Amino acid sequence: MRIATYNVNGVNGRLPVLLRWLKEAAPDxxxxxxxxxxxxxxxxxxxxxxxxDVIWHGQKSWNGVAILSRVGNIHxxxxxxxxxxxxxxxxxxxxxxxxxxxxxxxxPNGNPRPGPKFDYKLRWFDRLIDHAAELVAxxxxxxxxxxxxxxxxxxxxxxxxxxxxxxxFAPEARAAYATLLEQGxxxxxxxxxxxxxxxxxxxxxxxAFGRNAGLRIDHLLVSPSLRKRLIDAQVDVxxxxxxxxxxxxxxxxxxx
Length: 256
Fold this sequence. Notes:
Blueprint lengths: L1 E6 L7 H11 L3 E5 L10 H6 L3 E5 L7 E5 L4 E6 L12 E6 L2 E7 L9 H23 L3 E6 L23 H12 L3 E2 H5 L8 E2 L5 H4 L2 E2 L2 E5 L7 E6 L1 H4 L10 E5 L1
Parallel strand pairs: 1-2, 7-8
Antiparallel strand pairs: 1-14, 2-4, 3-4, 5-6, 6-7, 8-12, 9-12, 10-11, 13-14
GO biological process, one term: DNA repair
Cofactor: Mn(2+); Mg(2+)
Keywords: Hydrolase, Magnesium, Manganese, Metal-binding
Protein backbone atom coordinates (compact mmCIF):
# COMPACT_ATOMS: atom_id res chain seq x y z
CA MET A 1 0.00 0.00 0.00
CA ARG A 2 1.34 3.43 -0.98
CA ILE A 3 0.49 6.39 1.29
CA ALA A 4 1.43 9.89 0.17
CA THR A 5 1.39 13.43 1.52
CA TYR A 6 1.30 16.53 -0.66
CA ASN A 7 1.02 20.21 0.23
CA VAL A 8 -0.81 21.38 -2.88
CA ASN A 9 -0.57 25.12 -2.08
CA GLY A 10 -4.09 25.83 -3.35
CA VAL A 11 -6.18 22.87 -4.45
CA ASN A 12 -8.26 24.72 -7.04
CA GLY A 13 -5.51 26.82 -8.58
CA ARG A 14 -3.27 23.76 -8.95
CA LEU A 15 -5.96 21.18 -9.65
CA PRO A 16 -4.49 20.12 -13.05
CA VAL A 17 -1.17 19.35 -11.34
CA LEU A 18 -2.88 17.40 -8.55
CA LEU A 19 -4.99 15.36 -10.96
CA ARG A 20 -1.99 14.61 -13.18
CA TRP A 21 0.00 13.41 -10.18
CA LEU A 22 -2.88 11.26 -8.92
CA LYS A 23 -3.21 9.66 -12.37
CA GLU A 24 0.50 9.02 -12.80
CA ALA A 25 1.53 8.10 -9.24
CA ALA A 26 -1.79 6.48 -8.23
CA PRO A 27 -1.20 6.52 -4.46
CA ASP A 28 -3.59 4.29 -2.55
CA UNK A 29 -4.06 6.96 0.11
CA UNK A 30 -3.13 10.63 -0.21
CA UNK A 31 -3.09 13.37 2.41
CA UNK A 32 -3.35 16.94 1.10
CA UNK A 33 -2.53 20.17 2.90
CA UNK A 34 -2.95 23.89 2.32
CA UNK A 35 -6.16 23.53 0.32
CA UNK A 36 -6.87 27.27 0.63
CA UNK A 37 -10.53 26.59 -0.13
CA UNK A 38 -13.72 26.79 1.94
CA UNK A 39 -15.60 23.55 2.52
CA UNK A 40 -18.07 24.13 -0.33
CA UNK A 41 -15.35 24.99 -2.88
CA UNK A 42 -13.34 21.77 -2.62
CA UNK A 43 -13.14 20.04 -6.07
CA UNK A 44 -14.75 16.80 -4.93
CA UNK A 45 -16.09 15.78 -8.37
CA UNK A 46 -12.83 15.59 -10.37
CA UNK A 47 -11.13 13.68 -7.55
CA UNK A 48 -13.97 11.16 -7.24
CA UNK A 49 -13.89 10.77 -11.04
CA UNK A 50 -10.39 9.30 -10.62
CA UNK A 51 -11.77 6.64 -8.30
CA UNK A 52 -10.97 8.24 -4.94
CA ASP A 53 -13.16 8.53 -1.90
CA VAL A 54 -12.37 11.82 -0.15
CA ILE A 55 -13.00 13.78 3.04
CA TRP A 56 -11.76 17.30 3.69
CA HIS A 57 -11.67 20.07 6.27
CA GLY A 58 -11.67 23.37 4.39
CA GLN A 59 -11.12 26.99 5.32
CA LYS A 60 -11.46 30.14 3.22
CA SER A 61 -8.12 31.42 1.83
CA TRP A 62 -5.92 29.50 4.28
CA ASN A 63 -5.01 26.07 5.63
CA GLY A 64 -7.24 23.07 4.83
CA VAL A 65 -6.52 19.33 4.84
CA ALA A 66 -7.94 16.30 3.02
CA ILE A 67 -7.63 12.52 2.89
CA LEU A 68 -8.12 10.57 -0.36
CA SER A 69 -8.47 6.80 -0.75
CA ARG A 70 -8.80 4.40 -3.66
CA VAL A 71 -8.52 1.32 -1.43
CA GLY A 72 -11.80 1.48 0.45
CA ASN A 73 -14.09 3.91 2.19
CA ILE A 74 -12.78 6.60 4.50
CA HIS A 75 -14.18 6.50 8.04
CA UNK A 76 -13.54 9.88 9.65
CA UNK A 77 -12.56 9.62 13.31
CA UNK A 78 -11.50 13.16 14.11
CA UNK A 79 -11.88 16.62 12.60
CA UNK A 80 -9.54 19.07 14.26
CA UNK A 81 -6.75 18.45 16.75
CA UNK A 82 -7.94 18.05 20.36
CA UNK A 83 -6.79 20.34 23.12
CA UNK A 84 -8.13 23.76 22.10
CA UNK A 85 -11.87 24.06 21.37
CA UNK A 86 -11.36 27.69 20.28
CA UNK A 87 -8.85 26.86 17.54
CA UNK A 88 -10.62 27.70 14.27
CA UNK A 89 -7.81 26.68 11.89
CA UNK A 90 -8.45 23.71 9.59
CA UNK A 91 -5.20 21.87 10.19
CA UNK A 92 -5.99 18.28 11.16
CA UNK A 93 -8.23 15.48 9.95
CA UNK A 94 -8.07 11.80 10.91
CA UNK A 95 -9.68 8.68 9.48
CA UNK A 96 -9.54 4.90 9.38
CA UNK A 97 -8.74 3.67 5.87
CA UNK A 98 -8.17 0.05 4.87
CA UNK A 99 -7.06 -1.00 8.35
CA UNK A 100 -4.79 1.98 9.06
CA UNK A 101 -5.51 5.16 11.00
CA UNK A 102 -4.38 8.18 8.98
CA UNK A 103 -3.73 11.55 10.59
CA UNK A 104 -3.34 14.34 8.02
CA UNK A 105 -1.87 17.54 9.42
CA UNK A 106 -0.72 21.02 8.45
CA UNK A 107 1.36 22.35 11.32
CA PRO A 108 1.57 26.15 11.72
CA ASN A 109 4.48 27.96 10.09
CA GLY A 110 5.18 30.09 13.14
CA ASN A 111 6.92 33.07 11.55
CA PRO A 112 7.80 35.70 12.55
CA ARG A 113 9.70 34.42 15.55
CA PRO A 114 9.37 35.46 18.32
CA GLY A 115 5.75 36.48 18.38
CA PRO A 116 2.16 35.21 18.70
CA LYS A 117 2.37 33.08 15.55
CA PHE A 118 5.38 31.23 16.93
CA ASP A 119 3.67 30.80 20.29
CA TYR A 120 0.66 29.29 18.46
CA LYS A 121 2.96 26.92 16.56
CA LEU A 122 4.45 25.61 19.81
CA ARG A 123 1.04 25.23 21.47
CA TRP A 124 -0.22 23.33 18.41
CA PHE A 125 2.87 21.13 18.50
CA ASP A 126 2.25 20.35 22.18
CA ARG A 127 -1.32 19.33 21.36
CA LEU A 128 -0.04 17.10 18.55
CA ILE A 129 2.47 15.48 20.92
CA ASP A 130 -0.30 14.73 23.44
CA HIS A 131 -2.58 13.24 20.79
CA ALA A 132 0.25 11.28 19.18
CA ALA A 133 1.10 9.73 22.55
CA GLU A 134 -2.47 8.47 22.83
CA LEU A 135 -2.27 7.01 19.32
CA VAL A 136 0.94 5.15 20.17
CA ALA A 137 -0.58 3.88 23.41
CA UNK A 138 -3.53 2.48 21.44
CA UNK A 139 -1.14 0.17 19.56
CA UNK A 140 -3.06 0.75 16.37
CA UNK A 141 -1.31 0.97 12.99
CA UNK A 142 -1.11 4.75 12.48
CA UNK A 143 0.49 7.11 9.96
CA UNK A 144 0.84 10.81 10.74
CA UNK A 145 1.42 12.56 7.43
CA UNK A 146 1.66 16.14 6.35
CA UNK A 147 3.50 19.44 6.29
CA UNK A 148 5.09 19.67 9.74
CA UNK A 149 6.82 23.00 8.96
CA UNK A 150 9.98 21.87 10.73
CA UNK A 151 13.40 20.80 9.52
CA UNK A 152 14.42 18.24 12.14
CA UNK A 153 18.20 18.41 11.61
CA UNK A 154 20.84 20.36 9.72
CA UNK A 155 20.77 17.63 7.09
CA UNK A 156 17.19 18.68 6.25
CA UNK A 157 17.96 22.24 5.16
CA UNK A 158 20.14 23.79 2.49
CA UNK A 159 22.65 26.11 4.21
CA UNK A 160 21.30 25.72 7.76
CA UNK A 161 23.26 28.76 8.94
CA UNK A 162 20.80 30.95 7.01
CA UNK A 163 17.80 29.55 8.91
CA UNK A 164 18.86 29.99 12.51
CA UNK A 165 16.24 32.67 13.19
CA UNK A 166 13.41 30.98 11.31
CA UNK A 167 10.49 29.30 13.09
CA UNK A 168 10.86 26.19 10.91
CA PHE A 169 14.38 25.61 12.25
CA ALA A 170 13.90 26.94 15.77
CA PRO A 171 15.36 24.79 18.57
CA GLU A 172 11.92 24.58 20.21
CA ALA A 173 10.29 23.23 17.03
CA ARG A 174 13.09 20.74 16.41
CA ALA A 175 12.89 19.59 20.03
CA ALA A 176 9.13 19.09 19.69
CA TYR A 177 9.66 16.94 16.61
CA ALA A 178 12.32 14.92 18.47
CA THR A 179 9.80 14.38 21.27
CA LEU A 180 7.43 12.80 18.75
CA LEU A 181 10.12 10.38 17.62
CA GLU A 182 10.93 9.52 21.24
CA GLN A 183 7.35 8.26 21.58
CA GLY A 184 8.23 5.49 19.11
CA UNK A 185 7.31 7.05 15.76
CA UNK A 186 9.59 6.38 12.79
CA UNK A 187 10.45 9.21 10.40
CA UNK A 188 9.92 7.07 7.30
CA UNK A 189 11.81 9.15 4.75
CA UNK A 190 14.85 9.64 6.97
CA UNK A 191 14.88 5.99 8.01
CA UNK A 192 15.17 4.96 4.35
CA UNK A 193 17.66 7.70 3.48
CA UNK A 194 20.01 8.07 6.47
CA UNK A 195 22.72 10.65 5.93
CA UNK A 196 21.26 11.81 2.59
CA UNK A 197 20.27 15.35 1.68
CA UNK A 198 16.72 14.86 0.53
CA UNK A 199 14.21 17.71 0.29
CA UNK A 200 10.46 18.13 -0.09
CA UNK A 201 10.13 21.91 -0.55
CA UNK A 202 11.85 24.45 -2.78
CA UNK A 203 10.98 28.16 -2.74
CA UNK A 204 9.76 29.83 -5.92
CA UNK A 205 12.47 32.50 -5.64
CA UNK A 206 16.16 32.58 -6.57
CA UNK A 207 15.92 29.42 -8.70
CA ALA A 208 15.80 27.35 -5.52
CA PHE A 209 14.56 24.23 -7.29
CA GLY A 210 17.16 24.47 -10.04
CA ARG A 211 19.90 24.84 -7.41
CA ASN A 212 18.36 22.15 -5.19
CA ALA A 213 18.28 24.69 -2.37
CA GLY A 214 15.53 22.90 -0.52
CA LEU A 215 14.05 21.98 2.83
CA ARG A 216 12.64 18.73 4.21
CA ILE A 217 9.46 19.75 6.01
CA ASP A 218 6.90 17.19 4.75
CA HIS A 219 7.04 14.02 6.83
CA LEU A 220 5.33 10.66 7.25
CA LEU A 221 5.63 9.18 10.72
CA VAL A 222 4.71 5.52 11.17
CA SER A 223 3.69 4.02 14.50
CA PRO A 224 5.67 1.19 16.10
CA SER A 225 3.23 -1.45 14.85
CA LEU A 226 3.90 -0.38 11.23
CA ARG A 227 7.68 -0.07 11.38
CA LYS A 228 8.37 -3.57 10.11
CA ARG A 229 5.93 -3.06 7.22
CA LEU A 230 7.84 -0.05 5.86
CA ILE A 231 9.34 -1.03 2.49
CA ASP A 232 10.23 2.29 0.90
CA ALA A 233 9.92 6.07 1.20
CA GLN A 234 10.58 8.55 -1.61
CA VAL A 235 9.94 12.08 -2.87
CA ASP A 236 8.34 12.64 -6.30
CA VAL A 237 10.83 15.44 -6.99
CA UNK A 238 9.92 15.78 -10.67
CA UNK A 239 6.43 17.02 -9.78
CA UNK A 240 7.96 20.19 -8.31
CA UNK A 241 9.29 20.97 -11.80
CA UNK A 242 5.91 20.78 -13.53
CA UNK A 243 4.33 23.99 -14.78
CA UNK A 244 2.32 25.85 -12.12
CA UNK A 245 3.27 23.25 -9.52
CA UNK A 246 3.20 23.67 -5.76
CA UNK A 247 6.44 24.66 -4.05
CA UNK A 248 6.25 21.27 -2.30
CA UNK A 249 6.73 17.84 -3.89
CA UNK A 250 4.67 14.78 -2.97
CA UNK A 251 6.26 12.36 -0.50
CA UNK A 252 5.21 8.74 -0.17
CA UNK A 253 5.81 5.54 1.73
CA UNK A 254 5.16 1.97 0.73
CA UNK A 255 3.94 -0.57 3.26
CA UNK A 256 3.84 -4.33 2.86
